[in-house]
Amino acid sequence: MPTVSLSFLNRGKVKQVCRVCHAIAELKTERLCADCARIKAQILVRFAEAARGTIAIPAEQQCHRTGCSCAACDGRTVDPHQLYLFDLARAERREIHFHPRCHELWIEAVTGLVARPDRGIDIGQG
Fold first, then answer.
1. CA distance 102 to 70
2. Over the stretch 59-103, which tens digit does the pLDDT of each residue have?
3. Of 3, 51, 67, 76, which is most buried, counting CB atoms within 10 Å of its CB?
C-alpha cells in the first residue's frame, strides 16, 4: 500500500522554545506557546484590578497542600506552590494558589515585567 507524505503542510512554521514552560511549539505573542498565552490572558481578565495596580498584592507564601485549585488555569496542584492571601472588604479572606508556570505569568501580569527575559531558541523549520 503506497504512503503519502504531507510534510509540506508544516513548511514555514518555526518551532521555538516557550520562554515560560520551555515547550517546543509555534510561539504566539511575547514568545509564549499557545497554552501559556491562554493562561496569561485568563490572568489579565480574572485579576484585572491586580494587573492595573488598583489593589495591593500581599506577600507570596508557600503552600504545601495538594489538590488546591490554581487561580489561573483551574488545574489542581500536586507539589508545593505559591499562595497569596488577600484580605478583602467585609473581613473576607481569599486564597489564590498558582502552579509555578502560572505564578510566573501572574508576576508578569501584575508587574508588567518579563520574569525571565531569556531569548527563545530556534529549533528549526518542520
1. 8
2. 999 999 999 999 999 999 999 999 999 876 666 778 899 999 999
3. 51
